C-alpha cells in the first residue's frame, strides 16, 4: 500500500518538518508512530513518522534530508510513503546510551527488544525539556528494563512528544 501526497516544508522554532495532509495520515495504519519507506522529491529513505497529537503525522527533516533536497521553509515536496514492519534503529541519546553501557547486565535485554520498542524508550526519555525529569526517566528506564519491562508504561503513543516542536502533546502550529 502506497500513499502519495504533496505538502510544504514548515518551520517550527529551529526545526524543519513536513506535515502530512489529513488524507495521507488517515490512510496510515496507526495514529502513533509509523515506520515507512519514504520518497520525497525522488529521494528514498526509511524513517519513522511522528504523530502530531491531532490524528495526523509529520516527517522530521534532519540535516541530511535538508541537504540532500535543499529544503527550507515553504518548499513544496511530493511524497510517497509505504508503511513497513522494518523499523530503522533509533538514535539512542547520549544519556540513555551511557546508562545502558553502564548496565552491562541489560545488553541482552536491550538487544532483544524490537526496534519499535527501542523507539518507544528513546521517545519517552526525550519527551521532556526538564533536565531533572529526563535524568529520572533514564534511571527509570534502566530499572524497568531490569524488572523485565519491554516498553515504558502510561505513554500516549499518539501524542506529539518532541519538546522542541510540541506543547501539551500537540504539534505546535507554525507561525
Automatic annotation (TrEMBL):
Q: Which Pfam families match?
A: DUF1905, OmdA
Q: Say which domain of life the source belongs to.
A: Bacteria
**Which InterPro entries does this UniProt record tie to the protein?**
AF2212/PG0164-like_sf, DUF1905
Question: Which SUPFAM superfamilies did the record assign?
Answer: AF2212/PG0164-like
Q: What is this protein called?
A: YdeI/OmpD-associated family protein
